[in-house]
Specification:
With 86 residues, the protein is an alpha+beta fold. The chain has one domain: Phenol Hydroxylase P2 Protein (Alpha-Beta Complex), CATH 3.90.56. The chain has 3 helices and 7 strands.
């Protein structure tokens, strides 16, 4: 299971909205200042599609995550599950 915690601020809201539109993804919150995005398969986010400025883009995981960042480039990130114990 992949879990991404997104700080509940307007700058990161496009990430929550993008996740809500993906199949197999559950979004809940906000609770105590964080949205929770969960998926059993990979998650993908595109900076340009979300209209995020680069400075915001590089801070999208400040809330934390349970999973592994497989690819993170200038405009796209892919998060996958991990087999590592917590």
């Amino acid at each position: 299971m992949i879990t991404v915690y997104v700080v509940d601020v307007p700058e990161f809201r496009p990430m929550v909205e993008t996740a809500e539109g993906q199949d197999g993804v559950t979004v809940s919150g906000p609770v105590k200042g964080y949205w929770t995005i969960e998926a059993s398969t990979e998650l993908r986010f595109n900076r340009k599609a979300m209209k995020m400025k680069p400075a915001v883009w590089y801070g999208i995981f400040t809330g934390g995550l349970n999973g592994e960042i497989a690819d993170w480039g200038r405009d796209e990130v892919r998060v996958v599950g991990t087999n590592k114990p917590l």
